[in-house]
Amino acid sequence: MDFANAFSIDNLRFILEGFYMTLKVAFISIILSFVLGCIVGTIRYTKIPVLSPVLGILVEILRNLPLLLIIFFARFALPDIGIQLGPVYAAIVALTLFEGAMISEIVRSGLNSIDKGQIEAARSSGLSYISTLWHIVLPQGLRRMVPPLVSQFISLLKDTSLAVVISLPELMNQSKIVIGQSYNYVIPVLLLAAFLYFAVNYALSLIARRLETKFI
């Protein structure tokens, strides 16, 4: 083990650049997958004819495919139909689709957890279906979704490491390159990468626990 040389200024800068890329891709994917998941989950909850069943099929397909396969598809298969995506955009698209499918199930389950009696009472008082959904169902459902959503976001952050297979310059890819300089760098670099992942994910897990205590 050679901690001194493994953590030289250049190596540390290189690894932290990868960590920044990990956070950047994760943040963008979290925002996009949350929006996608909310839209799809709400549509499935409202049981719109044709559209809801079709989206349900797509969600089940995505949820039951390995994320690695989706990443490969976004990077190497889409160019065959004229869609060229670099490693960053391919990773974001793959993570957004996969995590969006997962989040849509969280949203649908959260909305379904609301007592039907409240919905019937709101409708009988004169509220339209849309108003009932917006003012009664969504506010309560979102409160119950917060803890599982944060847990899903933690999984998304860890899943960015899979993009190493398409040479996304994220934390694991940069760590692999530094390790390639010397076998003595393996333990120091991997320990640093583990610490960085742990620090962010543990902070998110603490947030999830606090929110679970507050909302559930």
In words, what does this structure look like?
This protein has 9 helices and no strands. The chain is mainly alpha-helical. The chain has a domain of 151 residues: Orthogonal Bundle (MetI-like fold), CATH 1.10.3720. The radius of gyration is 21 Å and the shape is elongated. The model has no long low-confidence stretch (mean pLDDT 89).
Features:
MetI-like fold, mainly alpha, 79% helix, elongated, 9 helices, 0% strand, 216 residues, transport
Q: What's the structural blueprint in terms of helices and strands?
A:
Layout lengths: L2 H4 L2 H38 L4 H13 L3 H11 L9 H26 L3 H9 L4 H31 L11 H9 L6 H30 L1
Question: How helix-rich are the residues, as a percent range?
Answer: over 70%
What is the CATH fold-level name of the domain at 20-170? MetI-like fold
Question: Helix tally?
Answer: 9
The major beta sheet can be summarized as: none
Coarse morphology: elongated
